[in-house]
From TrEMBL, chains A, B:
All residue ranges annotated as the Methyltransferase type domain in the record: 2-74
Record InterPro entries: Methyltransf_11 (IPR013216), SAM-dependent_MTases_sf (IPR029063)
Protein name as it appears in the record: Methyltransferase type 11 domain-containing protein
Originating species: Adineta ricciae (Rotifer)
GO molecular function: S-adenosylmethionine-dependent methyltransferase activity
PANTHER family per the UniProt record, alphabetical: TRANS-ACONITATE 2-METHYLTRANSFERASE, TRANS-ACONITATE 2-METHYLTRANSFERASE-RELATED
């Protein structure tokens, strides 16, 4: 098992929290990643792909590193969430929230403030994500535009606004099984 | 070749415009459609599926009616377009248009006025469309969230606003080839 991050501090934190001493942690920039081919059963990426500029190169690397029939699962910020140039809620007089979308078709750089100022993201349409995966040879298995259940809202009322628009996209894909 | 519509007048118009006398036109309600199995090479549906309540039943009928390796291509209103309870542009002081989204996760009935008052549509998330197709056995080949090219906007300036959010979804899927 191989764990990758671009941050030394995140890797230290991961090692500290880890319960499995066989996990190898490695400092890597996913823009430059190289992996040995036909090696892994599963690749998993959490909320990172919307930062990657050379995404098709990374998808190629992941595809080649998977064994036949291997899976790739990732979450990213949803294109509805990354599209607006100045993202934010609009609140009507009755308190009802909406998420104004613009520039959905204009892919590329978005700059927002999150923890620090000037965080750079890459907006891509949902079609672009899926078609890049299909072009690479992956089979689309499941597309989840995450939203909270009623029970989750009861337990955590601030999740309520997530009913209005998806913030997170989760995709499950597979390398064809040629065995 | 078989052409279906629920409207007698649309079928008359189709026959009138038709250049191929071998096309069979039939009055059908897609909510109740039956087709002979393993018969067709291609199914095509234009801007209709967002009206269908029993969509998984219809997808099953289409899947079964296709030959091995047969294709299904459809357009529908995009979930970003069907989500809001009261759809419409919001215009900022600088004239910039946005499309406020709400209730994206609340699937089901939407009532809007289009040609006549009180047109009923069914909102589904993009994930739901794709997962229904995958569950039925289809392979996702291409997902297009249509937007205009620069050239198309030059030729037809009113298409400009379509940059801000997709109105139309086009999906190309295939029944696995078991030959």
């Amino acid at each position: 098992m191989l764990g990758l991050d671009i941050s030394e501090r995140m890797l230290s934190k991961a090692k500290e929290l880890s319960v499995d001493s066989t996990i190898v942690y490695r400092l890597e920039d996913l823009e430059q990643l190289e992996l040995s081919p036909n090696t892994y059963d599963l690749a998993y990426s959490s909320l990172t792909l919307h930062y990657i500029e050379r995404l098709s190169q990374l998808l190629k690397t992941i595809y080649q590193s998977l064994k036949s029939g291997g899976h790739f699962i990732f979450s990213s910020e949803h294109p509805i969430y990354t599209a607006p140039m100045e993202p934010g809620w609009s609140v009507a007089k009755d308190g009802r929230k909406s998420w104004p979308i613009n520039n959905y078709q204009t892919e590329g750089r978005r700059v927002t403030d999150w923890l620090v100022k000037g965080v750079v993201k890459q907006h891509r349409t949902l079609g672009t994500y899926l078609n890049m995966l299909i072009k690479q040879g992956f089979i689309i298995k499941h597309v989840e535009e995450w939203g909270p259940t009623r029970q989750e809202i009861i337990e955590n009322p601030s999740l309520d606004e997530e009913i209005e628009r998806p913030m997170i996209l989760l995709v499950s894909i597979q390398k064809p099984d040629r065995k």
